[in-house]
């Protein structure tokens, strides 16, 4: 637990982040990030598609504080959508609302999302709003509900470690959701702290969303949960077309391919860009095994 809290602290430390960004994606980050440019991301997605894997790309960045930065981020999302269409890859777009100005002005963020979703709709591409820390949860869900009055090609993520996750699942019946355990440090008042409690609640919301007929993206590297979901869907007669598994780029590639071989959809979350620091630190915090990536990167320099 100390290790997890340590890396979560580092993920939010601007002093260390500023210096880390000067080093470039070292300490293993290059193993889990698909380059810095859109073109590099598209080449990575192509290679995944050739193996039978689908993808979602995410231009890394969060907590934008100026209108100009938010508009630039929105334009970059549009460019990414156009690249997905041009390269004819099987790929979604993932993004964070703080990138698009949620902390600057809600109307600015909404307008940016409307622009992105309109382009995505034209190109037939689904857009996933990534969930951020608890302080942004209500604002994210409120904006999602507003956007879905105009677009069907948008969904979000729900974090299984939150006490309120089951209620949010019920409120979001029919919405394409990415279900994750959660990667931010949250207080015991809002989130389960023990791993067994998180796992139990995570499985509960997965089964609830599947059972109400909603499309469900199960984002986990935990083979035990994957096996449990497969068993449950067979028992309930839930078609493979109603759900997919998701994993992060650079993690458990053998298991990703095994899932595809077994006839299930496997989507790989592909991050790219120069703002890799916060993302990478949260990955180290999630599982102690991930620290080996950092050591390999350090020793290779």
TrEMBL record:
Keyword Flavoprotein on entry: yes
GO BP annotations, alphabetical order: L-proline catabolic process to L-glutamate
EC number assigned by the record: 1.5.5.2
Pathway field: Amino-acid degradation; L-proline degradation into L-glutamate; L-glutamate from L-proline: step 1/2
Keyword Nucleotide-binding: yes
The protein's required cofactors: FAD
Protein name according to UniProt: proline dehydrogenase
């Amino acid at each position: 637990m100390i290790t997890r809290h340590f890396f979560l602290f580092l993920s939010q430390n601007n002093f260390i982040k500023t210096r880390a960004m000067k080093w470039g994606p070292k300490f293993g980050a290059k193993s889990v990030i698909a380059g810095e440019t859109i073109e590099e991301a598209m080449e990575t997605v192509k290679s995944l598609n050739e193996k039978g894997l689908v993808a979602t790309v995410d231009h890394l960045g969060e907590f934008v504080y100026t209108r100009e930065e938010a508009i630039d981020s929105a334009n970059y999302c549009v460019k990414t959508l156009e690249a997905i269409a041009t390269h004819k890859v099987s790929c979604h777009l993932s993004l964070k609302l703080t990138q698009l100005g949620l902390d600057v002005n809600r109307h600015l963020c909404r307008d940016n999302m409307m622009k992105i979703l309109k382009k995505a709709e034209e190109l037939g591409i689904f857009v996933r709003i990534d969930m951020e820390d608890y302080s942004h949860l209500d604002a994210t869900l409120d904006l999602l509900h507003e956007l879905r009055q105009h677009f069907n090609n948008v969904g979000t993520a729900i974090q299984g470690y939150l006490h309120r996750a089951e209620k949010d699942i019920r409120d979001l019946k029919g919405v394409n959701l990415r279900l994750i355990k959660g990667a931010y440090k949250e207080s015991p008042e809002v989130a389960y702290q023990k791993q067994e409690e998180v796992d139990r609640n995570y499985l509960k919301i997965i089964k609830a969303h599947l059972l109400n007929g909603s499309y469900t993206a199960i984002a986990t590297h935990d083979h035990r949960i994957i096996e449990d979901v497969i068993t449950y869907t067979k028992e309930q007669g839930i078609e493979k077309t109603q759900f997919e598994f998701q994993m992060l780029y650079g993690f458990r590639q053998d298991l990703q391919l095994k899932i595809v071989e077994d006839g299930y959809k496997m989507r790989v979350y592909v991050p790219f860009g120069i703002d890799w620091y916060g993302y990478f630190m949260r990955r180290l915090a999630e599982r102690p095994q991930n620290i080996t990536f950092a050591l390999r990167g350090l020793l290779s320099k």
